């Protein structure tokens, strides 16, 4: 199996597209902008889901399921919300097909037109708040802490596997609270949950912050986000958590009786991460040889490849390997023993490198004689010979090492790619030549933000949570600024 | 909490609808025919999913994800398939909304018409076999054993929560094989997996069999099914597994090179169960007091209700109960200790009865003094006093007992409701007066089947797998018949 993978230096974008397809994560379908997530890619997504779901439940959330369709009139109820989504809505207008009268095939049956068009959900605030109206009467019904795992559709013109697809999979949390403070706390909490997941499981360091007004979710009063940095110096928004104020409660007339007996509008949050995380995972760690997966999310953590001539040798190897497979599995490690005789060891090595399996053990005749395994780690592509009696411990510690190492590597890369600048000229130069995050002063005006975006394609990724207070002057207008914000070109 | 539940005897259908809503399983949404699955209902569905997913993986299947949308032309490729689904398709025709020119609100943007209409998947054979064409070249690529958890849409005119909704959640397995025998084996295997799940987890006895030609899935050459019997004597198809022959391979031109180097069409199966199972669960076990849930699928297996006056008494009770909660949880039992002081014990008893919690422990002042718990089981509504030191063992054994008991009860009911008849008059009488399955001879002709359906509303639910060979005469036409088949009115 030759990899024939374009190198990152040659064409990062091409490398990404090729890698996603060749490593069996996903591929384009016959439906414009919609992808097929292949079993290997889906197995990673399942691991992400399982961990996130656990973290959501640990913070008190329950899952539920709301309709795929949203009546057009619902979407219109929150003004800024509809403005944000109207241009990318898939619209259902009919509910039946029929045979064409001229016998030319199947056509839409015009007699089966819907009274009101239905939108395929681009996000579910409207249908959910229409439901919450029925669930909430008094403060005793609050908070509602609900999450949904679902597919959503946003009709994008330019799509890329995982990063931007017309249909994608995600989770969307939608919570309802009695007070503004509680809702703000919830929104902030979920940003921290996302950051913890990204860093400890995906091995992707992220910067926590808030969005500027123009980058906020359509209908939000505050958007918290986590921002990651890809190897090509472009940022990627990996998750968002929105404080929605009382906007949706007002649009859908959701009030509750307070302890004192007053009627008040309910406070809301929503938060989501999507299959886009798969793109972030690939672009953070992988190299010119293929995927590099964090052990905590790798469908196969360890692969064992026998090197043999003839079935006798294979039998002798299997006799040693099979108990090892059992022992590793008993420790919760997912192992594949690949003894296919249709493919050569070199082919297999290439395949598992391409697929990012963290640890590879090879065992041949000489290893049998010496009582050793050849151990290769995917992140550093280094090999060593390890005694059989030490192999279980070695594998366990390697998996931890790799998880830590790829995080540290990504963190070091990001540190090297946060540049402070004080002039707009320097800004343009860094954005153009070096990439990464640029930390600069900005006067807080959307017009300045727009101008910068237009001239450099860089946007404000976030106002970092931990930004130190520092008086300064906007690099563009010279007007006063209270703290630096982070700019970058972004996916 | 008064239950105010219509009794089954009074109006079974009304009882079902009320129960689903009042026990917080699901409710109708503002979108015609689409339901909201509430957290309590979704928690049961999650448990079903987890167990089924485990069983699918144990039989070698992997998950993947395919697009929500299907181009109209794909659906048309398999003739009987499109005929089966065309009349209930939600059709996407546009991809954008815009502000109406007269300022009246948001309208569909006619400039954003799709070149080819997209169908919201009613099932995914077509989009999947369009994909499999790319995945399959040689016998080495087979079998493909893939499952998908997804939402699907079938535009039904009359809908009922869980039983028949426009959108529903399901899993659909789609496998590809080199030989007819292997595909048949797979289809049959999955029927057995479904039966095992229904009986051992849901506590729902099922009859395994095959469908008659007119009841087969659109595009299948054989449909295996599991059929359950509800308390009102109506049958419910709980799962189906289809042998699709080479129909989809031919429609989508999916061939493979055999070991001998010939090009042959691939053999296919598909199989699915859906949120309809939730309806079967409710209608098999529940009673006039509410849900009765099998312990293996109950989100809360044990609830503990303290009976106290004043916080001192509550503290004394909690001191005893909290270690018990821990101990039960350590055994993998899900426990809720409900010490809300906003509701009285009687209200709580009612609530957990309605929600079908299998075991309820109550503990009051006298229990504290005597070192006992009052233990109530939901299935029989019986109570007993149990010594504190025996309570863990008691709860464990009760959960097993209840799981077994509700299955046995349902099985006994079904046995009483399989009636053999030899004349059409008797048939009509049993169908009308007693309900349940009727075992009768049929000549194998679709016309006879149609006539029976028209005259009695009963359909052939299945040709049971274990039907004993028995020569006989069709009860309607008197023509020869080789074995009895099972008729019933059905959901």
Would you write up a description of this structure?
Two copies of one chain form a homodimer. Chain A is an alpha+beta fold. Chain A folds into three domains: 12-285, BirA Bifunctional Protein, domain 2 (2-Layer Sandwich); 302-398, Anticodon-binding domain (Rossmann fold); 418-488, C-terminal domain of ProRS (Translation Initiation Factor IF3), CATH 3.30.110.30. Chain A is built from 14 helices and 27 strands. In chain A, strands 3-9-10-16-13-12-11-24-27-23-22 form an eleven-stranded mixed sheet, with helices on both faces. In chain A, strands 18-17-19-20-21 form a five-stranded mixed sheet, with helices on both faces. Chain A is globular and about 80 Å long. The model of chain A has no long low-confidence stretch (mean pLDDT 96). The interface between A and B is large, with 63 and 63 residues. Strand 5 of chain A pairs antiparallel with strand 5 (91-94) of chain B. Chains A, B: Keywords: Aminoacyl-tRNA synthetase, ATP-binding, Cytoplasm, Ligase, Nucleotide-binding, Protein biosynthesis. Chains A, B: Its main location: cytoplasm. Chains A, B: GO terms for molecular function: ATP binding; proline-tRNA ligase activity. Chains A, B: Belongs to the class-II aminoacyl-tRNA synthetase family. ProS type 3 subfamily. Chains A, B: Residues 27-294 form the Aminoacyl-transfer RNA synthetases class-II family profile domain.
